[in-house]
Amino acid sequence: MSFADRVLAGLGRGIASRAGPLLPAFVRGLTDQTVATDELVTVTDPTEAIGHAGVFDLDASPFATYLGQLSGTEVPGGLTLAQQRDYVRDAPGRRRGTPAAMVAALRPFLTGYKRVDIIERDGSPWRLRVLVYTAQIAPGVTQAQLEAAAALQKPVGNVMVVEQRAGASFDHNRTHTTTFDSRLAYFPTFNDATNHLPEEGTIA
Description:
Structural class: mainly alpha
Radius of gyration: 26 Å
Shape: elongated
């Protein structure tokens, strides 16, 4: 028996007889959006999660983003269900506004070492720069997704820039800085080294 049929049966013969022949279609229209939820909470196997308890089981529920909201974690878009569950389990909302939370928000969109660098006080106390590396960005991930994910966890009031960098290999650095003295000459300050963009064709 479908959910709509159970609702119709629950209304009783009195209402059904007075409502007329359009009642079944009306009830189906009202209940159509709740069929998936009804199937989720209906107990079919006593050994599985029982009824509504399954909705609140992060490992079983398909509503990971909803469970994240209940726990104070806003899940960024573009994640698979497995990634959503991992994100909620990590609970970055409890560290909101910290570098660790921004790193955790970006890592589901990265591959490999999933490196994220954050430069705080980037020109002023209220600016920060978040660096990710193009070779580690997962296929299909856009700049807008990266910015939205980091924005969920950035400190309120700060201006943030999310930048994709090519990155430099050890071999690339070795061609410019064979000794400590040559490195100091090539990169006089920390910012010079951080902001260095490898020349085209000098990295794999």
